[in-house]
Write a structure and sequence with these properties.
By secondary structure, the chain is mostly helical. The protein contains 1 helix and no strands.
Length: 71
């Protein structure tokens, strides 16, 4: 992988003088990545839920509102 595609917060090299720092940075990067994935999944769920609510509101307007819903 060339250096242009590397992320700026890469973990220190394995042969660093402090192995705990390498472990802590790696653990933190993995935790942040997991949290980012959870947020992406939550946002995808919210957008699909919003589409369902919009569809139900349109159906309600057509059935009980007396006509075609105005968008």
């Amino acid at each position: 992988m060339d250096n242009a595609n590397r992320e700026s917060h890469s973990a220190p090299p394995v042969d660093s003088p402090d192995p705990f720092s390498a472990f802590a940075v790696t653990l933190f990067d993995n935790l942040v990545g997991a949290q980012r994935m959870q947020l992406d999944l939550y946002m995808a769920w919210q957008s699909s839920f919003a589409a369902v609510v919009d569809e139900l509101a349109d159906e309600w307007a057509c059935r009980f509102g007396g006509g075609v819903p105005i968008e």
